[in-house]
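Late entry, written up from scratch paper. The run itself happened at the end of the previous shift, but nothing got recorded in the book at the time, so transcribing now.
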Amino acid sequence: MKCEVSVGEFHSTMPSPRFEAQARRREEQLNRQLAGEIVRLGQDAGLSQREVAAAAGVDRGYFSRIENALVEPSTETYARIAAVLGADLSAHLYPSSGPSIHDRHQAPILEGLIASLHRRWQPFPEVAVRHPARGWIDLAVHDPDARVIVATEIESDLRRLEQLARWSREKADSLPSWDGWDHLAGGTPVVSRLVVVRRTRRNLAAAREFERQIALSWPAHPEDAIASLTTGAPWPGSALVWATEGAGRVRFLRTRM
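Output as recorded:
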């Protein structure tokens, strides 16, 4: 018996309605999964509800509701039932598509990017994807005439470059699972990626150390990417763009470093 919890489903002191709904759906999925496993293990062992409930010290009526995923038992209750059924209860945090917490620098950078877009780009902030990766894309921008959509991530700290590259790629590949995918104008688009990184000394040092990895993951030149987003120029492909933010102003730099 396994209880799986996905990293990225948490928030700070004031959870948003979106986050609350997401966490609730995941909790319900876990309860249904565990309920199904309890039923299956009991049937495999030839044990009745009464026998399992009595051995685990759980009221029979409550145990019936557990099997039907109508209640949310404590971890201790699940552990007692698992022991009776000869199973191990384990909980794991599996990295998915990154934390849901955004810092104070990301919002103004995102706002500045949307404000800079040429009218041919349609912005879709906070895009939820479900599979194969599950998470939120900060911004998707769609050009229906060119049939291209760009999954955009805003990063203020390059802590783990390899993780950022993997997550951005996995979430971009998951765009067809977005609810708005089938409603995009212009037909099925080509998916590309953009990462906008806040320019700080620390981030620049990390970028210089892993320059080859950046070139492989985001090969297009930032100048070409910015030109495409702000004018009618064609989209050049996946790119990493530096941004500065301060005093109410956001600038997007056309240089690689």
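The radius of gyration is 23 Å.
(Scratch paper discarded after transcription.)
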